[in-house]
What we know:
By secondary structure, the protein is of the alpha/beta class. Helices cover 32% and strands 29% of the residues. Helix 6 (188-201) packs antiparallel against helix 7 (228-239).
Amino acid sequence: MKRALLYILVISLSLAGGFSCGRIKKGAALRAVERSDEKIKKDVIDQLYWDSRVDASKIKVSVEDGVVTLEGKVLSPVARQSAGDDAWSIAGVMNVNNMLELTYPNTYLTSVRSDEEIRDDALNALMLNSYIGAERIDVKVDTGILTLEGTVDTLWKQIRAEEIVSEIMGVLEIENKIAVVPSEKISDKRIAQNIIDAIDRNMNVDADNIEVTVENGNVTLTGAVASWDARNAAYESALYTAGVKNVYDKILIR
């Protein structure tokens, strides 16, 4: 989104040859919201019990200096992801260590699926989502541990492939070894500017509070925002940009 505010466009080459691009608004500063670890913990627990996708009774929550750690067991990848998202949604959370383990109920253990069955289902699921380039992805399964290998041309396809197979019954763990190989060479400078432009168009985040650094297609996001929605908006702006191989999200929520 375009703003009639005075700003400085910061563009600099790092010593390692990377490219940094960000906006710093003159006189602007985010006001940190100080919240105690006890208050954050209470809100995280309340959010988990509110979320019908999660069995909060099986999850232990601890908080230290705004960093939330989740421990325990969940019955599905969706529950694990949802619990992590619930923690991130709480004001004052600086980071989330999602250490939840995936387990299956005893009734499932009496009919464990073979690795071949799991692999066949995973390949079929990927082929039904052919837009990710499933023909270039291979699947291996060893005692329920599923490994993805191959190449895709964008980072979001690598992540989407893992999401697809995570719903396959019998998958205990996923190792995503898919390499991101962009179909065209895009300079770090152009990638950084494209990300900043995408953030600037997004109504949920102020581009003036984000700095983007790109080195060989690897993106690092830094800065501070007021909400989980703003942080996620900045992350997705990088995730869906062509030429990006990895995103390291170091944005703080204050």
